[in-house]
């Protein structure tokens, strides 16, 4: 016969350590949620695409969703640590508390964690669905990306080739990524997209840059000696500037 | 004893058994390696134009295999099987000799079958492994602590990173099940030894044999691929890659052997009355861990064999030019790689779950949920591997199902949290370093777990994969949770294993230094990951300077803490306070045997009538 | 108690010392730790009219490392590996040079590099690198056969924007970390030398009399740390032929520092 989590007395919520834990729970949840979110939001790069904004939002949401769980665990820890602690070489007397199980507590915990899990899953699936469709966008600029040890090179639709990536703002682009030697990973940092470059295969990633500026492209898969230097820049410019640049470079490429 | 000292007319092998030890093993191994090396150099045909590299790979591999065979022969691994084949099985006296009876310190340098000896051997080698891995970590952090890095040149750095990774992975795999799974577990279940004592010695000496190819590798070009040894990069790597391959193959055998041994022991040799309901939770954790390793490590083994074949025999398992695929390697590797992190984590958490009732003087909260949690994690862990491959482009349609299974693992993991906080609730807290380790685990594992949730989300992973954020996450889980549990287990079981108490002050000092240093270090690492620093780079943009400096300062703090711990181990072992039989007043069976523990543990095998959590007036 | 803590401190210091020792050894074991400074050469006027201080560098690419140089007298641990190396003003090997693949050039300057290419060649993995990129005017000057005995051009100097992607000996490609520093990207393909002549000379323990010679100029921006490596796969026998010499510093790669 198992007992309730605390005692047979119906008003378990009135006992002092429960009240203390409840208050601490609220405080810890708020701290974990706030600090966790601020930590991520302040450390992360400035977004340059909707995709990246979505990533940041997702971190916010997940942090707040997880904070009650973390808050409860930390609250219980604090309650325990601030009750009488025994030091010395001999153990204190055995605890009065003899409860070794609580089906109700177990059930609540498992159900809540399952619900949180479901929440995380659905949130993730929604965004994942959007990303999968973005790769099929027919009006997108089709850009070929080649990773060679240890340089990225880009093939533009009109024949231009460059080590720099130029993109027009607010226009979707689909990258077709491959490698000529070992595995690399094509990461446009501030736009929140990444896709491995595999030898013998072409993989896809899509994004719509929504900010004019210069951003970083870094290789994210160890690819040998100079992996740390396999980096270049992406310049997001106005449509006009993009058209001019691409035409210039196609001409340069074409010249013998 | 007399059987061995006299020279009867029977097999001359008897005196051989007495002579075999680590010295003969090393000598025989080195000689074999040298001989095979010369022979291979002489007789292997030259390469064809197309693949000029493979002859050197063949020579290296053959020499390493020769080392392995020579070493294992020299340590005496073949004695048992050889005698059995000859029809003259080992006598009782010889078995007692092999178990280290009356041999003093020498028994630690031989192929000794006593599980207590093997446990101590594992403890020492784990400390050596962490020492080397730690030195490499300090080199990495010193390099990254200098602005923009670049103090160590790329080749050496990549090899240091890869070696640090694989050494620490191996160290964390064996850190709980090795010393404590071997020394403590049989006594805890009321057995005299393990099911297969000779396999026990084998599993330990295989690790020693495996270490040499890894060290050897550093002098023939190093490991340039990171610990995951991705192909095709591994195919391109210098000769040192063969050292990695041999290391893994031998270690995989060690793990499989240990897995068979530990599982059989737990299933078949528990004392009378120790039903599954009365089996301590640490036993469940140990068994789950090795049971997980049993299917996972053969896959790792095969993945490396194929890598060696691609290099030395010009096959194309992983080379697209020949019709193969690097994705095959990734799948095989992560099919091992994910269960493997639970192989690391579960025993550490189970050890802390075992300690929690002792240091709160109240029953373990919901033993059933604890078992369910361990079982759930073990079962699910074989279904999540491709979350390491979300961004590989391998199978975009599979990202969603793997996201599902990965998110699901948070449920059984949460159960372990429930058990721990439930056990802390309304306990009488006895403040020791293991006690505080429980709180440290809850803190570290919470952070590790939540950051894992971000990573398990495919769109977020598109930003985070391959960045330092991932490195920080897995250090929080494997080191913040795993190592914390292992260090607590060390202090907790130290009295039983060495007969002395671990110096209290040193255990506290090292605990705080390690925990504070750890959190400082890896919080700094999260920030640079979020700011865009990739993994495995020896040099980086100046924007990452501050974060890296913070991490390096944290790392140096960990170093001081670990060195204090090392000192604590050595000085307590040599001259610590003599320990009483049951210093923690715990209720598991290992605390019912005296120090020093008799060779066969129990005079009379115990009969168990209740579980080990009967603190207070709780019923089982 | 106090003694134990003091002793623990001793362990800490000892441990730190061991680490420091190993670290120093590892850091010092760079293949090629020195740098070659660019030589001043007056001033340079770009096509757009701007003038810059002018600096020059010379270097050679070899089919093996027997030239010694920064690898040591007999070519070091891998005498059969292809390698870059320091060169004299007429492309002569500098066998006693202590440094070979790390270069330092000043900021906001025009840098002219001349490379004598003594190796044969084949096809690039990625033909992106067959084109001259990042230089002034997007061009380089190529002498297909340079006579190292008489110090003259055996064939006419040509202005090139690319070379056939299957006739590449090596490339010189400068690139670097994406960060606050200025981008610097220069890629110049180096024509192969005649295969038979190269092999014949190797058998005699020397190098062909007729390497190709490529000269190009580029403008540096602000100070920064970059890297250069060859993009021609000459690590025979390895995956994508990018192992061996290609994956070891000081053979086919090095540091390129813009400073001062």
Care to describe what's here?
The complex is a heterotrimer of chains A (256), B (620) and C (260). With 256 residues, chain A is α+β, with helices and mostly antiparallel strands. Chain A has helices spanning 16-43, 50-82, 103-134, 239-254, and strands at 85-86, 141-148, 151-155, 161-162, 165-168, 173-179, 184-188, 193-197, 203-207, 213-219, 231-237. Chain B is globular and about 75 Å long. Chain B starts with a helix and ends in a 45-residue tail after the last helix. Helix content of chain B is 67%, strand content 0%. In chain C, the strands form 3 sheets. In chain C, strands 2, 3, 4, 6, 7, 10 and 13 form a 7-stranded mixed beta sheet that branches. The longest helix of chain C is centred in the first third of the chain and has 27 residues, at 2-28. The chains are: A alpha+beta (256), B mainly alpha (620), C alpha+beta (260). Chains A and C meet through strand 4, strand 10 and strand 11 of A and strand 11 and strand 14 of C.
Give the count of helical stretches of chain A.
4
Query: What CATH first level of the largest domain in chain A would be assigned?
Result: Mainly Beta
- Ends distance of chain B: 46 Å
CATH topology title of the domain at 119-462 and 473-486 in chain B: Cytochrome C Oxidase, Chain A
Shape of chain A: elongated
Tally of DSSP helical segments of chain B: 22
Shape annotation of chain B: globular
Helix- and strand-based class of chain A?
alpha+beta
Q: Compute the gyration radius of chain B: what is it?
A: 25 Å
Note the main sheet of chain B: none
Number of strands of chain A: 11
Structural class of chain B: mainly alpha
- Subunit arrangement of the protein: heterotrimer
Q: What is the element string of chain A, with H for helices and E for strands?
A: HHEHEEEEEEEEEEH
CATH superfamily of the domain at 119-462 and 473-486 in chain B: Cytochrome c oxidase-like, subunit I domain
